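2024-03-11 09:14:02 DEBUG pipeline.ingest accepted 1 chain
2024-03-11 09:14:02 DEBUG pipeline.ingest length=316
2024-03-11 09:14:03 DEBUG pipeline.predict start
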Amino acid sequence: MTLSRKHSLLIVFAFIFLLSILTSEAIAGFRVVCSTEDIAAITREIGGDEVDIEMLARGYNDYLFMMSKPSLMVRLSRADMLIYQGMELEIGWLPLLIQGARNPKIFIGQPGLLNTSLAIDPIEIPIELDRSMGDIHPFGNPHFQLDPINGIKVAKLITERLSQLLPESSQVFKKNLKVFSDKINIRLKNWENRMKRFKGLKVVAYHRIWSYFFRRFGLEYGGTIEIKPGLPPTAKHLERLVDNMKQNDIQLVIQANFYEDRSSKFIKEQTGAKVLILPASVGGVEEVESFFDLFEYLVSTFEKEAPLPAIGLTAR
């Protein structure tokens, strides 16, 4: 083979490669980028085959502490829409990504930018703002994905905005919303029935990620491993927490699986409490692929491994 022929083949292959890229760009659908895997899971239920969905953070990430990587800016630069969780959950990294993407479709005030927390009635809004209190959220607890009903509220908001941007597909979105809402309502009755036995159970958590889940299913905080939100525990704090658990017979510790587990292991050694390392989001573990999977996994784990509150020992 002559050198010129090799060059000719390289030019042909390069042309084919470039053409494939341009073609894929041309036929690409409506691109929706979601900040978290939970929002992506809900958007997928509503958008179906009408939209192409990407996400910035995976369910095994701590959504509060992501890196503003250039590769994520590229995703946003091509987005027709950005849907984010809100309540400043992504405040440390998402604004930088939006700025770097330079995509006018997702600028503040544009219909291509959607804050899903606008659909939520927030809890744990601080009375006063003081940085000495730790990493507090001024607009309330942002981990609202851990209440199934909030999933419906978010889905309605997404349906409205997608219908505005893609009116030709609005009936599809509304139909998908009904299917999603019906599934949640039916399954929620099952989940609530199975969690009844744990009503009133006091639980120590690493971080107050679980507040919406606790409110929905009647659980209570018995303390947190963090000394303050976002601040790791000191030895003295852990000692006080252990004493409190012994005095109040608190037998369960739970934490999201992206936190360090040295502290919970120490507590287990000192108290004999059960420790559950759980996914707090869709995609947090391999088995949790959908919004429905998340709650089935959490409820099933409680059924199998959580101790009953003292008042309910005879219920098992």
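2024-03-11 09:14:41 DEBUG pipeline.report The two ends are 79 Å apart (CA to CA).
2024-03-11 09:14:41 DEBUG pipeline.predict end
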